[in-house]
């Protein structure tokens, strides 16, 4: 005990000593004290000793892909990963009882964020599983007049907010089920399943500063929405999703939802300000930049910009100090331009030049300023190299060019 | 317990800021410092002693969370695989 305390003191001295604190300008921003490389399968026995200085890692501006755990969430989860490891479905001993109590508490936290009853929340492995359960319902109810409307609440590529309340009203009046994938919206904009007449909702843990591998589906009880289980087994979660509920993960999801409810207004205000700052600063220094998505109905934390005459992938490569994306992570392996941009009628060439900037709870003003500075610098540099840009500068209308076939 | 005095609240504020600056991760560190400052500033004109006590209790809980997380994250980032094999000079043939 004494040894560990002494080791902790020594360790704190090592990490606290080097490196400037965030008060320093950009240099201090990238110098992450104590950020060591993660464990790798190949042991680094010939690599640098741990004290050889912190590893510089890029700024994280890709919150739509995933979010870091909020420390409050990790704190809530840890007991269930250490001592309170019971199976929540064990009925006969304290380990089971305390695990079940934690699971039900988490259920209440998720329900309260969206205005639902806890009995309407089923834990799943993520929003993808929840979406599959919801859509499968359509196949289960094969009457010709039954149908389902499924809409994303906030788009993950361009940040557009869908008019959920209006859609809900229409669906409810036509007796059509309404499902929404709220992965990017939960905890960020106010949602109420009753006000918006939502019948099914998918929730993802790792988009709201919770753990990966967990999510939930909201299934309305009044009027009852019937769903068919995707996986069968021991009948857990009211038979709708068999499999032991992972207590540490759902406790994390619950804690993330509770924190989100408390922080929603503060986060929204801050993120809106940072978003304004990013967009204004880029647009006033660079011509021919287009923001994709309706600016009126837009979630500020997801900014999708197209930089004309610059190829998106090359800009991403150039901005190697910043973790960004040119579309959704789910489609990032393919080289096709985003289906979302195509759907909103973006020109093919602009669709290829789009970058998505994500601003989240932990994003700082410094990170935004650094990103803006680097973005402006590299766009200018890439445009200098572009013959298309040269032609535009000379006043040639690119649309009038007849490209010859070779 | 008597309602928290101004001095106690300020002590708590200072303790929270001090502890937050020990986060090794840049984003957590900056968030904690910023959030604490903004929260105390936002509530500085609260007069109702019951409300003050509720806020102080929540702050104490959060201080506990910060302390635990600073310690936990400190050890997590120092954990490195292959430490034992490094001292043996032999490649590691199994997971640490």
TrEMBL record, chain A:
PANTHER family: CYSTEINE DESULFURASE (PTHR11601:SF34), CYSTEINE DESULFURYLASE FAMILY MEMBER (PTHR11601)
GO biological process, one term: iron-sulfur cluster assembly
Pfam families hit by this protein: Aminotran_5 (PF00266)
Xref: SUPFAM superfamilies: PLP-dependent transferases (SSF53383)
Protein's organism: Pongo abelii
Residue ranges annotated for the Aminotransferase class V domain, each copy included: 133-370
Coiled-coil residues: none
Cofactor dependence: pyridoxal 5'-phosphate
A GO term, aspect molecular function: cysteine desulfurase activity
Organism domain of life: Eukaryota
Family: Belongs to the class-V pyridoxal-phosphate-dependent aminotransferase family. NifS/IscS subfamily.
Annotated keywords: Iron, Iron-sulfur, Metal-binding, Pyridoxal phosphate, Transferase
GO cellular component: cytosol; mitochondrion; nucleus
PROSITE patterns, per database record: AA_TRANSFER_CLASS_5
InterPro entries: Aminotrans_V_dom, Aminotrans_V_PyrdxlP_BS, Cysteine_dSase, PyrdxlP-dep_Trfase, PyrdxlP-dep_Trfase_major, PyrdxlP-dep_Trfase_small
Entry EC no(s): 2.8.1.7
Keyword Transit peptide: no
Gene3D superfamilies: Aspartate Aminotransferase, domain 1, Type I PLP-dependent aspartate aminotransferase-like (Major domain)
Name this protein carries in UniProt: cysteine desulfurase
From TrEMBL, chain B:
Region (Disordered): 70-96
GO cellular component, one term: L-cysteine desulfurase complex
One biological process term in Gene Ontology: iron-sulfur cluster assembly
Bias (Polar residues) ranges: 72-87
UniProt-listed InterPro entries: Complex1_LYR_dom, Complex1_LYR_LYRM4, ISC_assembly_LYR
A Pfam family reported for this protein in Swiss-Prot or TrEMBL: Complex1_LYR
The organism's place on the tree of life at top rank: Eukaryota
Domain Complex 1 LYR protein: 7-64
Family membership noted in the UniProt record: Belongs to the complex I LYR family.
PANTHER family: LYR MOTIF-CONTAINING PROTEIN 4 (PTHR13166:SF7), PROTEIN C6ORF149 (PTHR13166)
The protein's name: LYR motif containing 4
């Amino acid at each position: 005990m004494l040894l560990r305390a002494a080791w902790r003191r020594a360790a704190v001295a090592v990490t606290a000593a080097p490196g400037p604190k965030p008060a320093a300008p950009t240099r201090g921003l990238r110098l992450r004290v104590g950020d060591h490389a993660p464990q790798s399968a190949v042991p680094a026995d010939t690599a640098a000793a741990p004290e050889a200085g912190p590893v510089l890692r890029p700024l994280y501006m890709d919150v739509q892909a995933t979010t870091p755990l909020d420390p409050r969430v990790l704190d809530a989860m840890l007991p269930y990963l250490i001592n309170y490891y019971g199976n929540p479905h064990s009925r006969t001993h304290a380990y089971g009882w305390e695990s079940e109590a934690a699971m039900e508490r988490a259920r209440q936290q998720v329900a309260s964020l969206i205005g639902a009853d806890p009995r309407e929340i089923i834990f799943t492995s993520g929003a993808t599983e929840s979406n599959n359960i919801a859509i499968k319902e359509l196949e289960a109810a094969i009457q010709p007049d039954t149908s389902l409307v499924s809409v994303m609440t906030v788009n993950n590529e361009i940040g557009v907010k869908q008019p959920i309340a209006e859609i809900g009203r229409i669906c409810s009046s036509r007796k059509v089920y309404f499902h929404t994938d709220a992965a990017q919206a939960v905890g960020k904009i106010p949602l109420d399943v009753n006000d918006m007449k939502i019948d099914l909702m998918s929730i993802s843990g790792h988009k709201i500063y919770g753990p990966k591998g967990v999510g939930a589906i909201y299934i309305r009880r009044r009027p009852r929405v019937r769903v068919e289980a995707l996986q069968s087994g021991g009948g857990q979660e009211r038979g709708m999703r068999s499999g032991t509920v992972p207590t540490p993960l759902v406790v994390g999801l619950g804690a993330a939802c509770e924190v989100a409810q408390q922080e929603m207004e503060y986060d929204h205000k801050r993120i809106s300000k940072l978003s304004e700052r990013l967009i204004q600063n880029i647009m006033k220094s660079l011509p021919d930049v287009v923001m994709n998505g309706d600016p009126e109905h837009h979630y500020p934390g997801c900014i999708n910009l197209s930089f004309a005459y610059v190829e998106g992938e090359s800009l991403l490569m150039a901005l190697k100090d910043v973790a960004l994306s040119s579309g959704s992570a789910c489609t990032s392996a393919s080289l096709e331009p985003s289906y979302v941009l195509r759907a909103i009628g973006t020109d093919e060439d602009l669709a290829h030049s789009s970058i998505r900037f994500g601003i989240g709870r932990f994003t700082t003003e410094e990170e935004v300023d650094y990103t803006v500075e680097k973005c402006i610098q590299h766009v200018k540099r890439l445009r200098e190299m572009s013959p298309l840009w040269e032609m535009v500068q000379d006043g040639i209308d690119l649309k009038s060019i007849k490209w010859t076939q070779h | 317990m008597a309602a928290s005095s101004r001095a106690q609240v300020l002590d708590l504020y200072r303790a929270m800021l001090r502890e937050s600056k020990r986060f090794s991760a840049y984003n957590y560190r900056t968030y904690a410092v910023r959030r604490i400052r903004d929260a105390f500033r936002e509530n500085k004109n609260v007069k109702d002693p019951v409300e003050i006590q509720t806020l102080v209790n929540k702050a104490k809980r959060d201080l506990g969370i910060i302390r635990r997380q600073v310690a936990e994250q400190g050890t997590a980032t120092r954990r490195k695989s292959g430490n034992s094999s490094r001292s043996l000079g032999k490649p590691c043939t199994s997971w640490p």
